[in-house]
Amino acid sequence: MTMNIDEEPLTPELMLAFYRRLYPFKSIFHWLNHEHTPTKLFMNREFAFTLQGDVYLRYQSFTTPDDLKKQVCAMNPTRFEIGPMYTARPRDKKLARPGAFQPVMRELVFDIDMTDYDSIRTCCSDASICQRCWAFIAVAVKILDQAVRNNFGYQHLLWVYSGRRGIHLWISDKDAMELSDDQRKALVGWMTVIQGSKEQHKKVNVRLSSRHLPPSLKEALEVLGPAFTDIILEDQDVFRPEEGWRELLHLIPKNYVETLEAKWEKGDRSSYDKWEDFKSEIKSSTRKDTIQRFTSSTAMEDIILQYTYPRIDAEVSKHRNHLLKAPFCVHPKTGRVCVPVDPRTIDDFKPEAVPTVGQLLRELDEAKDTGDAEHRSDWEKTSLKPYVEMLDKHALALMEEVRRTKRDQGGDMSW
Amino acid sequence: MLRARKRVAVEVEKHSPLRYPHRLNFYDQPPQGEITIEEFEICALDRLRILAEIESSYARNRPWDELKKYTLEQCKKYLHLDASSATLQDVDSQRRKDHIGHFVLRLAFCRSEELRRRFVKAETTLFRIRFEDDDRKEREDFLQSRQFSWTPVMKDEVEQYAEQLKAAASTYLPPKDQVDLEKEKYCKVHWTRVPDLIEKRKVFLRHGMAYVPSKEQASIVYEEFQRNLENALLVTLKHLPRLDEDTRIVPLLDNLSQGFLAGVSSEWASATTAANGDEITAEMIDELARKHFPMCMRHLHDTLKRDKHLKHFGRLQYGLFLKVLGLSIEEALAFWRRSFSGMTDDKFNKEYKYNIRHSYGLEGKRANYAAKSCQQILLSDQPGPQDSHGCPYRHFSLDNLQTALLSMYSSQGLTVKDLPEIVAQVKSGHYHVACTRVFEITHAAEGVRKGEGVGGGESVTHPNQYAARSRELEKKIKEEADGDITMS
């Protein structure tokens, strides 16, 4: 049940109609700008357009959302990306003194992509994604969301489906926007657990030999443990094929490998059974509260982490000037809109249910006949509505916070 | 509690007979009083040697302990700082030198983003090395003399997060040890103040606040040092234009900031005789080139043999190098005459002899020209399309460089496997590090290990230093071998 690629080809005409009538420029503006009147956060912000024929246009900037809309409609890009707020307007980059054009503020972003999971998912590979793969993303979202909120104390998180096989996180707290590249790097270090290349079996090195897990990962394990059983053992059945369990053997402490290998070579056992085999091996050959038992259980924890912990594309998060596709853009291959996602209902999110451009424009055509009042925005007549409202609500919270801070700072104002 | 601390600090300062009561310095105040231009330069140069050592240690990926060891060695040589307890030493003037050097380099390195970044990194590292190296008592005194913005964690909060704090502690304590929460003093700072602890997940983190145990509080100090310096450099940058009026200072600063690019010129710049005093004759050069020359000279030698000629700057670079290597004027004339085999004696005498004698200080203004250092080779007289002088690591295209490396040094143990590392250094602009690495590889048979450089961890800063060290190693091996024979 691989996701159907939208049958209609994504023509420039469709894209143009989408930008003209549906794309929520106002909401995007509020979300980036944190205020009603345009500030540097918007005006000095870099936009980068990918035009038809893969021409890449960087350092675009705009003074108002209408400005942005006008240019988008004129250029009709296949997608556009958002970068940082610079010290000067990006379109005046060449006028700035050398060295004076620097990124200043930028949402802290994360990118999780399904391709990083290719070695541990059995249902699909590469670009395709199905509901079953989504489970990996759902776990990643839960872990990351929880860590960012609890550990780092950030509150303004916007999760956005990337239109095909991944998800982006944009964090707009003022503190987070002000982080330097070095600080971002440190934060990414805190979040990164899976490291190492294809050629490396053990990709989790989060502790010095036979120490406990750091508290944050211990917390994560409470979610990851059940997820490991559901996804890896049950649904994906990763350790059933020989390739899968051979990989697992590399991670299991040496002293168990021989017995388990002999057993698993003989018969076709399910992943669940194999995991049970491993557990009972540990139980029968070590005693409680011994150092051997402890190292075995740390090995188990590390395996669970390796198979379920979010695989983050670290480079995206480390640099302020990294560009990331704007929400509500259309994925050029699938035609699906990059819509915001609620992390609390992430398990129920169905990537294949996300509206495509073609579908939205059809909905719009049908809605026209109802002759509804004209002052309503066009997106309200389509299934894009709940998603735009989600962004609006998010932006409103941001604007509310800015207003509060301003009021606290200027106590001598009219109130 | 903090207030009490501060009062103590003030008293300490009052009663201390020293102008600089601490070995460590946060460099909050610029030096006051008169400084001579010589002092200005010497303080800066000596400090620069140490910072360059730190930089090249990073570029070569040295482990922390080694970096610290080599840096402290350099510090001892150029910028020694005694503890306050060393009453016999003039600790004040040592510290004054440290103080001035730091501020001069601020002027030199505030001028571009790249320089600022490198300077801050090297300075913070130096501070950290000294901080770790300081004795406990003086470090405590220093910490109390300054107010660091951390909040102590109260007892009830420690109890509330006891479990997490214990788990965090167990990630760094020896496996069996338990942290004693009664005794451990925690303090709370925003996580951005301790990025290195965050990156390694060494602390408990909640709502953006990191709970730092006393053992790790140094991290906060380092971060504060770094942040202060970053801001201070920007302030310096703003004030810099006013310095333009002083014509003595700007060229000096230019010179200093270039020192980072090519390493600091070593004493080789002024040396004129071979370190080991052995006479070198024209016949020996072929063999010496093969065994001991750095790539730039090797390339010039090979070109000379192939073309029977070298262009002006090539002759200059190579000729002065040979002079410092120990080639006398008579041998030099013989060498060049023989090398330019395609021309008549008459032409040679007319057009080249004068030049060679001139470089030995025997003609014209009779100056004693020094051989060019790596810095000069890298930065001045950029080679044109017909030239063969310069630094191959900088002036060769990457594929030519790799081919040349293999053809020159594969007999001395350099293999294809070594190339990526060298290329990576070249790409990031660390030409002298690449050269040093080649030295290490080609002298591995003589017992040179990675990171040792041309002795004591120093990197190549002068072609003659490269050749001299190479010959020295050979001599030592020979002597040892001879010794063995007589022993048996």
From TrEMBL, chain A:
Family note: Belongs to the eukaryotic-type primase small subunit family.
GO CC aspect terms: alpha DNA polymerase:primase complex
The UniProt record lists the keyword Nucleotidyltransferase: yes
Gene3D superfamilies linked to this entry: DNA primase, PRIM domain (3.90.920.10)
First-tier enzyme category under EC: transferase
One biological process term in Gene Ontology: DNA replication, synthesis of primer
GO molecular function terms listed in the Swiss-Prot or TrEMBL record: DNA-directed RNA polymerase activity; metal ion binding
EC code: 2.7.7.-
Key words of the record: DNA replication, DNA-directed RNA polymerase, Metal-binding, Nucleotidyltransferase, Primosome, Transcription, Transferase, Zinc
Protein name, as recorded: DNA primase
UniProtKB/TrEMBL annotation, chain B:
Highest taxon, organism lineage: Eukaryota
Region (Disordered): 450-488
Pfam families xrefs: DNA_primase_lrg, DNA_primase_lrg_N
An example Gene Ontology CC term for this record: alpha DNA polymerase:primase complex
Residue span, DNA primase large subunit C-terminal domain: 286-466
Cofactor note: Binds 1 [4Fe-4S] cluster.
Ranges of Basic and acidic residues composition bias in the record: 469-480
Entry keywords, A to Z: 4Fe-4S, DNA replication, DNA-binding, Iron, Iron-sulfur, Metal-binding, Primosome
PANTHER family per record: DNA PRIMASE LARGE SUBUNIT (PTHR10537)
This protein's name: DNA primase large subunit
Organism: Phanerochaete sordida
